[in-house]
Amino acid sequence: MHDVLITNVTIVDGTGSPPTQGDVATKDGRIAGVTTNSSSKSPETQARRTIDGAGKMLCPGFIDIHTHSDLTLIEDGRGESKLRQGVTTEVVGNCSFSAFPIEPRHLDLHADHLARATAPIRPWWTDLDGYAAALHDEGIAVNVAPLAGHGTLRVAAMGVEQRQATKRELARMVSDLHTALEQGAFGMSTGLTHVPSAYGDFDEVAALAEVLAEHGALYATHSRAAEPDERAAVAESIELGRRTGVTVEFSHLAINRPERWGTGAELLQMFDDARNEGIDIFFDVYPYEASSSSLTQYLPPWLQAGGTEAMRARLADDSQRTKARSDMTEGWFNGIPWLWDRFHVSSTPDGRYVGETLESAAHSLHIAPDELTLRLCEEYGNEIQVVLFYRTEEDVSAFLRHPLAVVGSDGNAIPLHQPCARPHPRNFGTFPRVLGRYVRDRGVLELADAVRKMTHEPARRLGIHDRGRIAEGMAADLVLLDPQRVIDRADFGKTPEGPVGITQVFVNGRIVLDDNVITDERPGRVLQHSSR
């Protein structure tokens, strides 16, 4: 007897193949049978629960290839904001931030570093095995596929120092990365605009990428703010792939410089040329015109050396504060102008300033926006988040449409209830938005291809062989939805809302979302990569 039988449903299997009508059965956490109308195989009709899928679509659970849920899933294992979207696997450890390895001597710096991207929690583990045990002990509703973060590797080896790593420190990073990969990490990420990952030069990153290539693991890069613009950042990523042979994932492809908006075709040609050369590179993208990050990221790198307390000490010195404001006049990330009305405060620990722009808040306090920025970073450290409106719909659509694109939210798995925040809507709506806005309403993507970009293709890129497709024997990570209704409802600056149109979500065969209700099931597990 099957556990669940979904009948008369439109099956979009994740491979890009056209939809078919049929039945899908699960048993013991796996897909036990797939019967289509054209199949000669008779369906097994005995099941503990039968769901009528008429008018609905069944696809593999979405694999969010770019998230920062490392510690938010420790706080709340439901992963509500992602679960309601149909996400069944979270790829954590992006942009150089990972919850391992942890050097106990640098625990304060580790906690400070991780607060930039995930949650202000002090780890009680030291390696990936310990982190996985912590997640399993807490109980998680979604699967987790971890990457090691370059910034975390650097903190463990040398703290937060703005200098080249010594041979001994680099050897420590290499050793820690080997250990993480042997314990099942799927790769390593950089965050080359985030301190301290930004302090690592090309040769340091290349030495670590060689370790990844040896293990058949992924290199995911939040690129460097190289001059003159994002073309140089893409070129550096391509060169790293060329030199080391590693598979490169270029994270959250975007154009943030107003004078460069609408020139996405140039970047896409660079990716195509690299692929034609034999370099294995692709990119992830999220379907929004705004980004989000900690405000401290945009401060001069020298000011951030040593962590938040060292930054506060520097800003207490009048001469260094003056220098910081002077350096800020040159813009952020090598000259991107400070358009203060485009910076919206989205989260602070006490809720102050949330919903205001840096321009409006500075005006109400009768101070300059750059001085306000320094005061906010002094007060809240890495725990102040902002949303930046520095992108265009034209570029987003072009990037989503490209064959090398996969979908990643760059968001966190968090509760809908956010009393002190108005987080970026990508946390709550990325995947339904792709299906509703960019497939059904705008025709930017074909349905089967959009599902491929959110399921089988990220699984293939990561080396996850038993998920991302609807086929007999695969893990039963599934999403049942109404393709005519599915859409995101979260919006900028507003109380978070979940999407509509998603009926059931299965993780490892167990129903974790049932008619818009999160169940008590916690079947998620930390997945492990095995070298190809």
What does this protein structure show overall?
The chain has 532 residues and is an alpha/beta fold. The strands form 4 sheets. Strands 1, 2, 3, 4, 5, 18, 19, 20 and 21 form a 9-stranded mixed sheet that branches. The longest helix is centred in the first third of the chain and has 16 residues. It is globular, with a radius of gyration of 23 Å.
- Count of beta strands: 21
Beta percentage is 15-25%
Radius of gyration: 23 Å
Structural class based on helices, strands and sheet pairing: alpha/beta
User: For the report, how would you describe the main beta sheet?
Assistant: 9 strands, mixed
Helical fraction:
25-40%
Entry keywords:
532 residues; alpha/beta; nine-stranded mixed sheet; 18 helices; globular
Topology of this protein?
Blueprint: E1 2-11, E2 20-27, E3 30-36, E4 47-52, E5 57-60, E6 62-64, H1 72-75, H2 80-83, E7 87-92, H3 107-114, H4 128-138, E8 143-146, E9 148-149, H5 150-158, H6 167-182, E10 187-191, H7 202-215, E11 218-222, H8 230-244, E12 247-250, H9 264-277, E13 281-285, E14 291-294, H10 301-304, H11 308-315, H12 318-328, E15 343-347, H13 358-365, H14 369-380, E16 385-388, H15 393-401, E17 405-407, H16 426-441, H17 447-454, H18 456-462, E18 478-481, E19 502-507, E20 510-514, E21 517-518
Parallel strand pairs: 1-4, 1-5, 6-7, 7-8, 9-10, 10-11, 11-12, 12-13, 13-17
Antiparallel strand pairs: 1-2, 2-3, 5-18, 14-16, 15-16, 18-19, 19-20, 20-21
